[in-house]
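Narrative of activities, Objective 1.

The group set out to show that a structural description can be obtained from nothing but a protein's sequence at a throughput compatible with the screening campaign. Below is one input-output pair from the validation batch, recorded exactly as produced.
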Amino acid sequence: MKHLLLCMLMFFAGFCFAQKKTVTPAQIKEFDKYVEMVRKQWEVPGLSITVVKDNQVIFKKGYGVRELGKPELVDTQTLFACASTTKAMTVAIMGMLVDEGKVKWDDPATKYLPELQMYDPYVTKAITVRDLLTHNTGIPGTDFFTGAMNIPVNEMLKRMALVKPIYPFRGGFEYQNIMYSAAGRIIERLSGKLWSEVMQERIFDKLGMTQTAPKRKLIKSENVTKPHFKVNDTIQVIEYGADSEIGSAGAVWSSADDMSKWIICMLDSSKYAGGRLLKPETWTEIFKPQSFFPEDEYPTMRLIKPNWRTYGLGWYQHDYKGKKVNFHTGSLSGLTAITAQLPDEKLGVYIFGNYDHAEVRHVLMYKTLDWFALGETRDWNAEFKTLYTDIAEKGKKRKQDFEARRVQNTSPSLALEKYTGKYTSPLYGEANVAVDGNKMSVNINDVLKGTLSHFHYDTFTATFDKAWYGKVMAQFTLNTSGKADVLIVDGMEFQKSDL
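Output recorded for this entry:
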């Protein structure tokens, strides 16, 4: 009798487990309708999504168009920017080199990259390969290296010595793309090949990711999306950004088809048909918490309210409904990505979008976790819509409040031509101010070009020729001789070089 009862219990448990894992056609159909509904509500021209569970693709589809005004539709082979979700791939490559004994996570970074110099000489000596990958060096974001200038990575690494820390070494969290670029350069020196070549050979080729390219310029397909941005309340197609010098931080382009293979591999302890990318202990190390990230890193945390928030090696992490979630977003001008894992449920999702910071990605991420594993019925779309609408409204209010502080009927201290000339900075490069008639312009490193409009006193607004770069403040200061000697544009300070 006991034996019979035990068999019945085992059968019932197995049946329930099987039932839990079964994804029905009705579920898929309802999820499909939901994705299209929220895409339209968030005004995203096009997106693609793939969901994997138990080493199988259970859903993948493209929605909308590759480019507004053109008929070509997004499908599961359409290429989008992976952006910062590339970081997990860079970490995986570094892990392979760890497995081969070519590097250790806690080796000094300067052992392989002597040109990397930090503001504090102690940090220069102490910073490790692991530190490059965990955003806890104390250094603020330095995206001006790619957004406001065009210099090689080795020069960026040298200029890091001029960037003042904003918190003690390993004492906080500040997202840092350049450190991932440094990791990519270490990979190059240890492998004797370009980071892009190593990525292609050691991940894409092995996993059969035939459409994926390490950089946009290496794309062979014509099935590629265009980026979109809202300019003056109208969503428009914008230019691609330049293929970044810091590719290992976010240069990969891929499709829903190919990212399915990457997700399955990472969920299954890096296994693939031909073997495994990483030793089990290295794969485990990648997903161990390495540092904490603050709640304001992602507005979504206000609603999720996790008990803990950590960063592994190339992955954000938090708890949700008693489960560990590994995730990462990616953003370039006009393009978005997000990926998430629910390891306990062997569930993963990847979502691409072609509209700047379209946060429908977060809606679909949590909806996927709920829909295919956790059974939650929370209306993430309504909650995230309210959250991001509130953020946008507060942003508008701050701009209005700033405009209201403008002192009316003031004039610049000097005639416009007295502000002209070359302003330089060992960190930020060069800014040239010119006057043509009654119009003043600024050119920063031949990358950011725009007009300067008087705001009040010696403060101007800089409006760049590419509208999606927005409008920022530009302030001149005068020396004791009454001459303009400093220009500060969006926090970048330049000194007049021809006084």
